[in-house]
Amino acid sequence: MGGKSDGTSKRGRQVEARRNDQAVLDAARLVFAVHGPDAAVSAVAREAGIGMGSLYRRYASKEELLRTLCRQSLAEQLVAAETALGSGDEPWDALTGFIRACVSFRAGAFTPLAGTIPVTAEMTTTARCVHESLELLVSRAHEAGALRPDVAGVDLHQLIELFSRRRPDDGGAYQRLLAIALDGLRAPGAAPLPCSPSTWEALARQWTRD
Fold first, then answer.
1. Domains of the chain (ranges, CATH numbers)
2. For 54, 77, 82, 152, which has the most beta carbons within 10 A of its beta carbon?
3. What pTM, to 2 d.p., does this model score?
4. pLDDT tens digits for 67-109?
5. Quick check: 141 and 147 in contact, CB under 8 A?
6. In the chain, which ranges are continuous DSSP H helix?
């Protein structure tokens, strides 16, 4: 009886620890998305409802916390991309479904970290997989005549970044503005877009520290 009780108690503590870890990550994602990567770690602790000691027991440094957030965000983006590609939806719906999903969990909030934290090989590989999946979604939408031909995948990465860094109290206004922005991507477009789109190589190069 005692062993079973001890095992149940241990599993309960593990579940609680995972729940607390996720609460910290959720709080950190919100704080850094709204206030930028220079936000104080103390603000994360307040948002999560824990003390600084508890936070630092989980993450020894702010850099470690930010890197964990980036890894989690990339993994979520890859799931969103694979879901969109396998959904069987019309190309336009699949593409916009991916964009909306990424905006919902603020996937682009950490772009300002580019070049400021070390990037692992796993992160680089996942980021490229996400980009290649997005390029396939874009290609399908172009072929279907649903997406204006002068829109590139990197444009959409940057659109996601723009809408990811929103206030938590906007009353859902971002959803209205995102709908307006997405409608502007539909083909045929109006006036030609200014300048050429950036490249994936240029975007990825920002994450390389000298």
1. 1-60 (1.10.10), 67-210 (1.10.357.10)
2. 77
3. 0.80
4. 998 899 999 999 999 999 999 999 999 999 999 999 999 998 8
5. yes
6. 2-35, 41-48, 52-58, 62-85, 91-104, 121-143, 153-164, 173-183, 200-205
